[in-house]
Amino acid sequence: MTHFHYKGGLRIATLLCFFFFLDRPACADDVRPGYQVVSRAEIVEAMRQCDDYDPTATTNGARFQAEMVAYLARKARARDPQGLPLFIGYEDWFRAFMEVTALEEDAMPQYAQLSYQHKQNMEVDYRVDRVIRKIKKAPTPELAVTVRIWWKDQPGKPDRYSYQDTLSTPHLKVTNRRVMSYRLVDFGNWVAYDEIKGLTGRPTSGILGFLFRIIGEGRVIQTRMAVSKDGLQVYRATARKGFFKRRDTVTVYPDGKMEKDVPPGRPDLLEIAKRITQPLEIDYAKLSGDR
């Protein structure tokens, strides 16, 4: 069992983030050949593993998504390490989230509602040779997956959407592109979102808000995360805008409250912050296919 809190196992909290009906597979029009469709019941099972924090808080979104994806990938890998990648349909994701949180549709968090409205589907490839080519400098991961999130490219449909994250300090504007992808690498006691594509953001309050109004949105390229024994998350996020590069460390509490750096008097969190700064150089397999 890792500190990533599986049962029986700054953040892009807003990266990823998506019963009134009988359980059914995703709409056939959305499913591409060569994928295993994850049922709504399986998604509910995965989401129920994440029970010691509030998944509706935007700032907990990255952890919630990572734990759900990792749970499903581990189960699929146990069945067949070279099995077909997983397909998670937007409808089943959203309805499963409603069931787990016992919320009505209009009370769901903004990041989930927007994902549903834009019909964002998800693909998860857990086959090692399709994710990693070579580890140059990093611990040996327990799990590595490629995640791609997208909606159909159709006339009249937007190529991105944005929303405000007011739980963060400073406040953030987050933009999701039509196609986003990242590598989720779990090292056991910390996790990395690496090679992130299609996610941008900028602070909208404080001095950083003033600066980013001048230079525009930055591209989130990596986030590292680890969780303490009492459920606090420590993130180290890297964003880039042209030649401007910024790294931030933040702490997220189970209720979603977030603060910069780590709180005083917590040597355990300082150790976590140190752990997630270790070298990470991985050559990833090339992404294939258009969306």
Question: What is this structure, in a nutshell?
Answer:
Helices cover 24% and strands 32% of the residues. The protein is α+β, with helices and mostly antiparallel strands.
Structure notes:
This protein has 291 residues and is α+β, with helices and mostly antiparallel strands. Helix content is 24%, strand content 32%. The two termini are 36 Å apart. The N terminus is likely disordered.
Q: For the report, how would you describe the main beta sheet?
A: 11 strands, mixed
How would the global form be characterised? globular
Instruction: Classify the helix fraction into a percent range.
Output: 10-25%
Number of strands: 13
Number of domains: 1
Helical stretch tally: 7
Class based on secondary structure composition and strand pairing: alpha+beta
DSSP strand (E) fraction? 25-35%
Return Rg in Å: 18 Å
Q: What is the end-to-end distance?
A: 36 Å
Pattern of helices and strands: EHHEHHEHEEEEEHEEEEHE
> Average pLDDT value?
84
Given as residue ranges, the uncertain stretches (5+ residues, pLDDT < 50) are 1-26, 207-215
